[in-house]
Amino acid sequence: MARRLISPATACQGCGLVKAGFLGMVSPLHYQRLPPASSKRGSSGNNYSSFCTNLTKEGSHWTRTIPKPSLSLRSSNSLSQRTSCSVATEPPPAATEGPEMDLPKEIFLKDYKKPDYFFDTVDLEFQLGDEKTIVTSKIGVSPGNEGTISPLALHGRDLKLLSVKVNGTELKSDEYTVDPRHLTILTPPAGVFTLEIVTEIYPQLNTSLEGLYRSTGNFCTQCEAEGFRKITYFQDRPDVMAKYTCRIEGDKALYPVLLSNGNLIKQGDLEGGKHYALWEDPFKKPCYLFALVAGQLECREDSFVTCSGRKVTLRIWTPAQDLPKTSHAMYSLKEAMKWDEEVFGLEYDLDLFNIVVVPDFNMGAMENKSLNVFQSRLVLASPEAATDGDYAAILGVIGHEYFHNWTGNRVTCRDWFQLTLKEGLTVFRDQEFSSDLGCRTVKRIADVSKLRSYQFPQDAGPMAHPIRPHSYIKGAEVVRMYKTMFGASGFRKGMDLYFQRHDGQAVTCEDFYAAMCDANNTQLPNFLQWYSQAGTPTVKVSSSYNESSKTFSLKFSQEIPPTPGQPLKEPMFIPVAVGLVDSTGKDMPLTTIYSDGMLQTLSNDGQPIFTTVLQFKKKEEEFVFNNVSERPVPSLLRVYSAPIRLDSDLTESDLYFLLANDSDEFNRWEAGQVLARKLMLSLVADFQQQKTLALNPKFVDGLRAILRSTILDKEFIAKAITLPGQGEIMDMMPVADPDAVHAVRTFIKKELAIQLKDDLLAAVSSNRSSEAYTFNHDSVARRALKNTCLAYLVSLNEPDVTELALNEYNSATNMTEQFAALAALSQNPGQVRDDALLDFYNKWQYDYLVVSKWFALQATSDIPGNVANVQKLLAHPAFDMRNPNKVYSLIGGFCGSPVSFHAKDGSGYKFLGEVVLQLDKINPQVASRMVSAFSRWRRYDETRQALAKAQLEMIIAANGLSENVYEIALKSLAA
Fold first, then answer.
1. Is residue 678 within 8 Å of 656, Cβ to Cβ?
2. What gap in Å lies between CA 535 and CA 563, rounded to an integer?
């Protein structure tokens, strides 16, 4: 699933205003598929807690829970008191009413056992109604262990049981038991039997958006991770795989479109103005991949011819008025299908592929077999209403969900501890896809930035966990390390063997590791530690050069800090890609390396090697390069070959040299970021000591050289001149100081704007274009550089640059440039800002996706008094607490503003605490993501700690608190 919820803040990308914390908060994602419930961390023998109710894989945890006018410058208490509260309004039956919420129960990966019963076939029938829906399931059951008979326990939530039959005979009340979360058949027959269950559910009351629910009059499902149990009683676990049929009946006028997984077998009219559709999925799947959609929709239809010559019908379903906005999504789908065949040899396996667009969806998208369901903003796009960031997100997430057809659907995870097996692998695949269709270096920079702003802080907090069970971004980095070690051809061989061995199975991370190693006839010592150890390794590197022997030495040491439940760590397997740069700025050829008593000769069919991958496996190791003619500057961790923190002995001069010369563009960018981080930390210390701030002229000159380059990619230049985010700097401080970091970043940005003003103005001017909008790399890069430079200039708050931004806003012919100009203007409080925001809303008030950007822009603002502004926006008629996208935009965006959220008076904490309790009554899954903003409260000064702690205690003491929110708040408080 693309839990990579690409936030509306992506609209700000390229304008220098994106808050890394905001992106981390709501991406997951997916994506991400942000962040983005509990730490059901997976290592046998380790003690990890989770709730044995509804399982939610989001955020950082596993939780189980119950021609237009122009705008001118002139116009300008105790835990025992809590009671259980269901998200949806409870249906009538008393059986759904539970006692107090279960307390956390320990779950261990080592305790996994296969199910006592397997389900071979599942025939579902839905009778959709406005007031209630009747669900009939007919299941072919076979014993998991021949010769033994045990009770068959089925999961269920918010269900009214109407009947249960075994082999056609209705069971008596003493032959089964029902409680709020289970239906148990006490003595099932020996051997194969048929189980038929009829339930009544109430989708129109289901505000949790899990299971079957109503969205703008249409029916929709979301079953991952454990939503299927809110549809019917079932063994709701991923290792129970069956072949499904689904018959849907509904009012033809209200629900003319009836969709489910697989192929449409039959459809027709029924009495009373109703009709039906019968769908069959020929492939086995777990119930979390089941999907149903019914409603008033129209489709864009196209086709794709696979590599074997089979024609696949492609349909994107959406309300009629949005159909013109689906062309880019269809392009993205066809490109993804083509890419997967070319790169991995993976062909689509059915004759039909459907995508459905819904406005109310907890996730970014969901990979249900042949029926993907997407949040509107990850499908709908037009140049006037969507930014380059939106277009890129659609490309990536459409690809992500399609790629799940093989990495997630055909081969799925055995249990939820193995989630990274499908999500980490599929995120890696969508990253590679987007890289191949765009600029690989820029995409790599974006992915690593997301890792650092989201995953690394989590690794250092109370929610730290290994990539098993849950990691999208870091899980993708672990998959990338396989490719780094084995190369593209070796990685492909491993993938081929993985599918050959496990097609149609539910498997584990060890199965993927074995396929990779066996296909390449090698082993990777310590590598499985990445799946079981939490935390971010810190690698220190020191270098020395021996003039007489012409050798260059790199000494490595690694340390993984303690994390909850794991005080002691073992060394990790860390691949470090290294190049050596000579005094002229050229890469030096590498011939031999001595390490661990062995001399390795480097060769590549007679061609010189300029980058090699060192296998760093111990706590300390030394690698000696031979035949090095002069002292080089090492280029370490090229292309960011491992998800670590690197601490090297590179001097400031070395870093400026790499910034100017490194052939690895990622490391060129990284050299600038290291310099910027060191500069910012130094100035933060000066600010805290009330010293006068001064900008290092060498830093200005370095950025000026980058900005003036006619060789470098323009989008790379935009990334290279963008300062590290406030959150990244605070993470490097012993005690985070949001006010000092904000003041320093603002100072540097303005000083750069002053000293580079002519260059910035020239970049804005030279990157204007009157051509029609196109989404291709050259155009995206041009707009990114122009918008980044404009944001720098407007930070000066001078009349000439403000007028410039207003002209850019008024003359923009696409949302990318219009919104970037608005974002630039919104940096400075005052009448111009207010007028621009009002003008933008008046223009776009009827486009809910654009309005979400408008909310996000204001929520992430660092202007004084923004807490009160965001509070007022809660009452805005366009805001709806029931819509996750609006919540992520406004509330999630606010949490990503370090200055406002961490306001010294605690007003930001109080605001979020109150909102979390309101939201928890509506949608606990979304509320749990919001409350995770409190998780690192101990990183701040004592005053802020006390204020944040008070809100966590208030949340935990609330009556009716959901288990989703409770667990995160409890873990945060106990940190």
1. no
2. 6
Active site residue 401: yes
Residue position matching structure tokens 């931004």: 805
CA triple 156-157-159, angle to 5 deg: 90
Q: 322 by DSSP, 3-state: which?
A: helix
What are residue 478's phi and psi, to 5 degrees?
Answer: -65, -40
Which residue, 569, 576, 616, is CA-closest to 466? 569
Kindly list the strands in the beta sheet with 538-546, ordered across the sheet, starting from the edge strand earlier in the chain: 598-601, 592-595, 620-625, 551-559, 538-546, 645-648
Give the rounded distance of the alpha carbon of 98 from its chain centre.
33
Considering the entire predicted model, what is its pTM? 0.92
CA distance 662 to 656: 10
Who contacts 285 (Cβ-Cβ below 8 Å, separation ≥6)? 241, 242, 244, 261, 369, 409, 412
For residues 900 and 870, the answer to whether their CB atoms sit within 8 Å is yes
Based on the number of CB atoms within 10 Å of its own CB, is 401 exposed (0-12), middle (13-18) or buried (19 or more)? Answer: buried
Q: What is the pLDDT of residues 809-845, one digit of tens each?
A: 999 999 999 999 999 999 999 999 999 999 999 999 9
Give Cβ neighbours of residue 570 (< 8 Å, ≥ 6 apart).
526, 529, 533
CB 378 within 8 A of CB 392: no
For 845-901, the pLDDT digits (tens) are 999 999 999 999 999 999 999 999 999 999 999 999 999 999 999 999 999 999 999
Reply yes or no: is the peptide bond before residue 469 cis, omega within 30 of 0: yes
Measured CA distances, 385 to 382, 536, 837 (Å): 5, 39, 16
Of residues 782 and 64, more confidently modeled? 782
List beta partners, residue 587.
581
> What's the burial of 943, exposed, middle or buried (CB within 10 Å: 0-12/13-18/19+)?
exposed
Please provide the size of the chain in residues.
Answer: 975
SS3 201: strand
What is the biggest distance separating any 2 CA atoms in the chain, rounded to whole angstroms?
95
- d(CA 788, CA 801) in angstroms, rounded, equals 14
Q: Mapping DSSP to helix (H, G, I), strand (E, B) and coil, where does residue 17 land? A: coil
- Cβ within 8 Å of residue 198, ≥6 positions away: 134, 135, 136, 137, 161, 162, 163, 164
Whole-angstrom distance, CA of residue 338 vs CA of residue 435: 15
Nearest-angstrom CA–CA distance, 256 and 262: 19
Q: Which of 28, 96, 99, 86 is nearest to 58 (CA)?
A: 28
Query: Among the options 226, 335, 401, 715, which is catalytic?
Result: 401
Instruction: Report d(CA 260, CA 59) in Å as an integer.
Output: 28
* Secondary structure class of 174 (helix, strand, coil): helix
Of the CA atoms within 13 Å of residue 718, those in its CB half-sphere come to 31
* Bond prior to 961 in cis (omega within 30° of 0): no
Burial (CB count <10 Å: 0-12, 13-18, 19+), residue 326: buried
State the Cα–Cα distance between residues 744 and 724, nearest whole angstrom.
Answer: 12
Task: For residue 456, give the H/E element and its range.
Answer: helix 456-459
Please name the residue ranges forming H helices in 541-591.
none
Helices 697-708, 757-766: crossing angle, 10 deg rounding:
20
Residue 144: exposure state from Cβ atoms within 10 A (0-12, 13-18, ≥19): middle
- In 173-217, at which residue ranges do the beta strands (DSSP E only) sit? 176-179, 182-185, 193-201, 211-215
Are the C-beta atoms of residues 57 and 225 closer than 8 Å to each other?
yes
Query: pLDDT digits over 462-507, tens only?
Result: 888 888 866 689 999 999 999 999 999 999 999 999 999 999 999 9
d(CA 675, CA 854): 34
Q: Are 49 and 65 in contact (CB under 8 A)?
A: no
Q: Which of 832, 824, 833 is nearest to 805 (CA)?
A: 824
- Element at 424 (helix H, strand E): helix 419-437
